Amino acid sequence: MSVSTSQVKLRVLPSGRTRILDEAAKLFLSGGYGDTSLRDIASAVGIQPASIYHHFHSKEELFTEILRIGVEHTTRAFDEVTETLATTLRSLDPQETLLAHIEAHLIALFEHGPYTAANIVAFPVAPEAVKSAVVPIRDQYEQRWDTLLQSLATSGLLDPNLDVRMARRILLGSINSTIEWFTPKQYSRKKKDAQSVNDLANVMTTLVWKGIAR
Amino acid sequence: MSVSTSQVKLRVLPSGRTRILDEAAKLFLSGGYGDTSLRDIASAVGIQPASIYHHFHSKEELFTEILRIGVEHTTRAFDEVTETLATTLRSLDPQETLLAHIEAHLIALFEHGPYTAANIVAFPVAPEAVKSAVVPIRDQYEQRWDTLLQSLATSGLLDPNLDVRMARRILLGSINSTIEWFTPKQYSRKKKDAQSVNDLANVMTTLVWKGIAR
DNA sequence: GTCTATAAATCGATAGAC
DNA sequence: GTCTATCGATTTATAGAC
User: Fold this and answer.
1) pLDDT at A155
2) Which domains, from first to last, does chain B contain?
3) Gap from A212 CA to D12 C1', in Å?
4) Please, which positions of strand D sit below 7 A from a protein CB?
């Protein structure tokens, strides 16, 4: 794993605003937008509901910000992999390139927890105003995948009958849907099944690349 | 397409209960559980909110019934394909078997509209009581896929390194995620891209079976 | 930056007439 | 089986003290 230049930084106790975002993200993730009240969020943070309005103008703005942060994390993870692969001397195996990006997406999904996961489970039933605000930055992320897959296609590495855009949608859909059943168990070794995010990334990549047929 | 024995039946105007279910399913699909009020539903049906309580004991019961109907439609579609394939004389090609079931699932998803689709987008953020009630019948449906894939694996038709249960989860996840971007255009022929549900099923099956690599 | 207090609207649900 | 009327609780959001 690469080490960013800002890797060495102090562990800061979350400020008020960040505490609100963290707790709200967890609650929106499990209960969606409509069933999560500002009272629930304030209670989880340990403040009064009115205090939230010092940091956010409305409930919708708070929710939008959470989704935005989630996409930001995912996008940054993608770009870091791109950069790392570009500066690597050895030749770029297409399946390994795919694996690296799939793993980055999954790490963002499971290790930045509620922010990225909320983009999967809470976004589809979010208020229209929230969707409209988040769609543009989601598009930017998806564009990166289109570019990646298109470069593979241009190099003749993909099935020529494949619609690249559709393949990207199905690929991201299958990766994102893992949030509903996969739970990474970092320290469990009791089974041979996929336990870590890295294991899951390997299975996903093989399945996407070669399919399930023998 | 097979014709069931009950194909010939009268077009009945939806009764009060069915009207409520139909409109509620649409609203829950677009806005989730918490942001859809009984007033919204009653207004869409053209009745008063209190009238809903003659047909359902609570909002949660109404929502649970909608999700249950959705799973029921999907399960029935799966079973009808299984039966049709079993009574077909010609040999069963594994990829064609897979295609038939994937297409049945997609048809249920897009043509029984709100009921099945709500199970994808509204279920993950549903109240716990609703989830608990629906999970058992969802499990029954998923069990059918496990059985199907296991029979293919036992016949040596699948990648022997594959975890069948995980493959099923990824497979269903990718199929279900199409609800977020695919819109069937029955009568449009302007492009060569997938337009009908049948086209989509073919693309999905090829991708799952052979992967994206050439 | 967090608090108390409260406004104004909306929620799920009930009672009872017809 | 649908209505009118309404209860009690909860919602987002605001005003203003500290």
Assistant:
1) 95
2) 67-210 (1.10.357.10)
3) 50
4) 1-6, 10-16
